[in-house]
Design a protein that fits this description.
The chain is built from three helices and seven strands. It is α+β, with helices and mostly antiparallel strands.
Length: 165
């Protein structure tokens, strides 16, 4: 464990949907594949989805050029319908964790989703931060975490469209 502190990426978004539906969109594979991709041309397929505290999921994203990217997600906390905490890793099709694709990128990044509702509008706070980064990982995070946050922002646009259906 390191004592290195870095600024998390924090994004907020309001969705014109009930909190329960937004929570389900984060915790059910049939919803996740509709929006948790970099763009609408990416095809998503879940191989396993044990989405509960202590559970994990494994899914594949197939890019328009045919390249497959596998992701393993480990769920730390799910409090219906208010809180979701998970860590996501690049993996292979067996679910073995692979090194991050970018040099010195943090090996573990945690996502915290906090939901609240007011008059049918769900407010989401998304916190994305490295876990116990090395000095090199902290430096890489600080230099480029906005790019990753931009990827999440595009996914949240797809989420809004999915929830509106």
């Amino acid at each position: 464990m390191t004592d290195i502190s870095v600024e998390p990426a924090v994004m907020t978004r309001d969705f014109n949907a009930p909190m329960q539906l937004v929570y389900e969109a984060w915790t059910q594979a049939e919803h996740l594949c509709q929006w948790q991709v970099p763009n609408a041309e990416v095809v998503c397929e879940y191989v396993s989805a044990d989405i509960k505290a202590g559970g994990s999921s494994l899914h594949k994203m197939t890019m328009p050029n045919g390249h497959d990217m596998w992701l393993l997600t480990r769920y730390q906390k799910l409090d219906p319908f208010t809180t979701i905490v998970f860590r996501q890793y690049r993996s292979n099709e067996e679910g073995d964790i692979l090194p991050p694709p970018m040099p010195n990128w943090p090996k573990e990044i945690e996502a915290i989703i906090q939901l609240s509702e007011n008059n049918g509008v769900t407010h989401m706070k998304f916190i994305w931060q490295p876990v116990n980064p090395t000095p090199e990982e902290a430096e890489a995070w600080t230099a480029s975490h906005a790019q990753g946050a931009g990827g999440w922002a595009r996914s949240f646009e797809l989420l809004a469209a999915h929830l509106a259906r």
